[in-house]
Amino acid sequence: MHGRGRPVFSFEFFPPKTDAGANELLDTVADLKSALAPNFVSVTYGAGGSTRERTLELVTRIQNELRITSMAHMTCVGSDENEICENVGRLIGNGVENILALRGDPPKGETQFKSVPGGFAHATELIQYLEDNYQVDVGAACYPEKHVESNDAVQDLMWTKAKVANGAGFLITQLFFDNQHYFDFVERARDQGIKVPIVPGIMPITNVAQIERFTKMCGATIPPELSDRLHRVQNDPAAVMAAGIEHAVLQCRRLLESGAPGLHFYTLNKSYATRSILAAVRKV
Q1: Is the CATH code 3.20.20.220 the one for domain 8-283?
Q2: Catalytic residue (one of 12, 97, 125, 145)
Q3: Across all residues in the chain, what is the average pLDDT?
């Protein structure tokens, strides 16, 4: 997952619930490949059964049919070591050698994460297991505004440092809208001896209520100026999209100008905003 000095651009998708949705997503990814040539594509990991199976299928098809390097997300939610072993074996057997190792969120209706018997309680444990047992490239998440469950930024950074010590070769940040959060986090991480690439995670804003729900869930913040601007046009979808794209283009340009190693787009399975942003960023 290293760009050898050039910025790495990647897109994240979630597995649709139906076969038709999965085929439509593959068409979207193929379209993005021809238009933007991403370095890799990742697919998130659902909380159970069918969506997990679809994650494994999609990353395999993206890797082997579309010939795009793919990365599977993997979480500790509801899986014991044997199940994780089976899924990693399937991925490797299908040519997928990149995994984003996450603890995962508690299942719907639950407020606290609980590991299953024989499973892992933290991403650090999953990363260590993958590092000890497989020849795969492992990435991890990090949180410029700290994880919602961390007591403070210092504790949060210690968890991040442990992920890297256990084998994470790169980090992808939670979404943020104020670049200063990213720059401050990178500086604190480097001060703690974290040397791996820290890739900013970018979520294009296309819906005001949706982005406010996401930021509340993950602990990210929307700058007051941007929030005011979005609320002035919240009932005009085209104006919201335009404002979101404009903000993201400026955000991405400044990140790259200041040395960010790439951009990871949380696409929400919609390609228009991501295409517009990355095309504009690449023109400069």
Answers
A1: yes
A2: 12
A3: 90
